Amino acid sequence: MESQVRGGTRWKRFAVVMVPSVAATAAIGVALAQGALAASFSVSGQSFKVTADRLDGTGFSQYGAVDQGYTLKGEKAAHPVAVSAFKSATIKNLCQSVVTPDIPLIGSVSLTLKAGGGEKPVEAENLYIDIEDLQADATFRNIDIGVAAKDADKGPGIKKGDTTNPNGFAQQADTATLTGVKQTAWATTAGTFKLSGLKMSLSKGVKECY
Description:
Elements: E1 2-5, E2 8-10, H1 26-34, E3 39-42, E4 48-70, E5 76-92, E6 94-103, E7 107-115, E8 122-141, E9 144-148, E10 169-194, E11 199-204
């Protein structure tokens, strides 16, 4: 069975997609660009924006969860997210950005990461993305909707440490293809993550991927 979804959607309806947060340092970025490396990224108290021309994933599953963290002021915060998980994924023309506001004497500073813009796409294994908002054109193949999160066996399973109801709503598919991706996320974890053609930059002011 094949299912297509077009246009924008919020996480409660369903959100799928990818990529790590921009909390990576330059040293980690170089290591990721040169070879496969286990990666777990989040921006404390901040969401980050991501765009991609295309994501092709196999072994997809998705379930609801709550991310626990802290604001930039050190206050506890909780964020409802849709966790999208892939056994493997390739991503073409990836851009991700995060803005740190109110830095003394400087103001806002934007960190931008770009990769997979050439012949080699970004590659990831056991990829989890905690998504708040997603816009994309999406195609799912052999999709199952309404399974319990603990019973979704096409993907890599529930991420260790996630705050979620194992008997809650989930969906899964053999493959997922998304194009024209725009998303807001809070965290990403990958067993391995390889960024081909990595470019990272810092700039003053607000400069986001979209």
